[in-house]
Amino acid sequence: MASYKFLLLSLVLSSFNHLFCYSKLDEDRTLGYLDDISSYDMTAYPSYYGAVHGERGTIAYQPNRFVLERVARVARFGYSQKVVNVKDHGAKGDGTDDTEAFEEAWKEACSSSTSAVLVVPENKSYLLKPITFSGPCKSDVSLMIKGTIEASSDRSDWNGKNGRHWILFSGIQNLYVGGGGSINGNGKIWWQNSCKINKAPPCKDAPTAMTFYSCDKLTVENLNIKDSQQIHVSFDRSTNVEVSSLTITAPESSPNTDGIHVTNTKNIQITNCVIGTGDDCISIESGSQNLKATNIVCGPGHGISIGSLGDHGLEAQVSDVIVDTAQLKGTTNGARIKTWQTSAVEVSNVMYKNFKGTSASEVAINFDCSTTLPCHDIILQDIDLTGGDGNAATSSCNHVNWTKKGNVIPLPCAK
Ligand SMILES: *[C@@H]1O[C@H](CO)[C@@H](O)[C@H](O)[C@H]1NC(C)=O
Ligand SMILES: *[C@@H]1O[C@H](CO)[C@@H](O)[C@H](O)[C@H]1NC(C)=O
């Protein structure tokens, strides 16, 4: 079995010679906002700030496009809309199975000739078995979740169904999902039966709470998502995605409960999210391109990760990733790029800038790159990390060509 190779502390990954520029954020506004949605004391723990300044070239991410789309969405909540309420299709929200009512309500919303709002009423908790919301729809659909959607905790409800999904959105354009409500995966029974906890065979997949597959022009915002069976929210083969103001929580001990998982997805912005789970806060997998994550509060969990890439020697490509302003507290890692020790993946053009704080491990910076494809064009700028208990942090360094700007503590390796 190939051994894991990983880089600690990746902030920006760009491979294949892409260059990017960075637009400065309104820090007062965004930090103030984070204060509102989180109970964390933002001054009480180390902050990690990252940014990238490109000397030439542009980044494909265009803030204005998203702003325009948001305006268009606001316009959608006008008079010519069809409002579909799940309760009119028989959803009770009293602990009985509401899956069929949701399916019927989706059919009506998705086939509407004017844009439709599908409402999940407040102050009720609706129990759903695995469910698929499929497109294409005739018009734009907004799913306004005001109440709570809860997963069945009876695992046999997945018998004969795809065990990897609980709520699946598939092949939909111009979908909005929000509303301020909650999604509860009731994952406890799945965690207890995870291979990581219970070694007795057979090893079975657990569902992802919300999967967005093959969606284009998608907004997911303002939801509390908790205790997923496995990954909380997954974006797969989607394009032009805006994710904001999600609060994602699960116990630190819950296995494989990644917060936001991105794979084969292009043009995605993730902003103002507070994530604390048992695995990566954000994981970025193969085929993802042009991802920008801003104002992320992460912990507990495993940090922010790219990879693992290159599993089984397969070619894997992730490019134009920017993580800007992330606060990590109580995480086992900060930012990682994980690749398998194969010849398939090369790591290059990574900038780590403005990292400050205390490392969970004594080795705060760890470059452990491939013998055949060393890491190159790695820039470290203005890094100030200490080890635990006030000790100096150390670094470890194999097969990496790096350059330094400003002060870098600890230095990755002697030059
Ligand atoms: C939901 O609960 C809140 C708080 O109890 C209450 O103010 C509100 O009127 C309720 N909404 C509905 C639709 O019952
Ligand atoms: C690092 O760069 C130097 C000079 O460009 C080169 O000679 C050396 O082979 C490189 N080392 C690695 C590990 O890529």
Please, could you describe this protein's structure?
By secondary structure, the chain is mainly beta. It has 2 domains: 1-27 and 301-415, no CATH class; 30-255, Pectate Lyase C-like. The chain is built from 4 helices and 28 strands. The chain has a 17-stranded mixed sheet that branches. Strands 1-23-21-19-17-15-13-10-7 form a 9-stranded mixed sheet. It has a two-stranded parallel ribbon with strand order 25-27. The longest helix is centred in the first third of the chain and has 14 residues, at 63-76. The radius of gyration is 22 Å and the shape is elongated. 49% of the residues are buried. One 2-acetamido-2-deoxy-beta-D-glucopyranose binds next to loops. One 2-acetamido-2-deoxy-beta-D-glucopyranose (NAG) is lined by residues 122-123.
Radius of gyration: 22 Å
Number of helices: 4
CATH level-1 class of the largest domain: Mainly Beta
Shape: elongated
Ligand list: 2-acetamido-2-deoxy-beta-D-glucopyranose
Keywords: Cell wall, Cell wall biogenesis/degradation, Glycosidase, Hydrolase, Secreted, Signal
Family: Belongs to the glycosyl hydrolase 28 family.
Subcellular location: Secreted, Cell wall
Protein name: Polygalacturonase
Ordered list of secondary-structure elements with their pairings:
Blueprint: E1 4-8, E2 12-13, H1 27-37, H2 63-76, E3 82-85, E4 94-97, H3 99-110, E5 116-120, E6 125-128, E7 131-134, E8 141-145, E9 148-151, E10 165-170, E11 173-178, E12 182-184, H4 188-192, E13 208-213, E14 216-226, E15 233-236, E16 239-249, E17 260-263, E18 266-276, E19 282-284, E20 289-298, E21 304-309, E22 319-328, E23 335-340, E24 348-358, E25 363-368, E26 375-386, E27 394-398, E28 400-409
Parallel strand pairs: 3-5, 4-6, 5-8, 6-9, 7-10, 8-11, 9-12, 10-13, 11-14, 12-14, 13-15, 14-16, 15-17, 16-18, 17-19, 18-20, 19-21, 20-22, 21-23, 24-26, 25-27, 26-28
Antiparallel strand pairs: 1-23, 2-22, 2-24
The site of one 2-acetamido-2-deoxy-beta-D-glucopyranose has 4 residues, from loops.
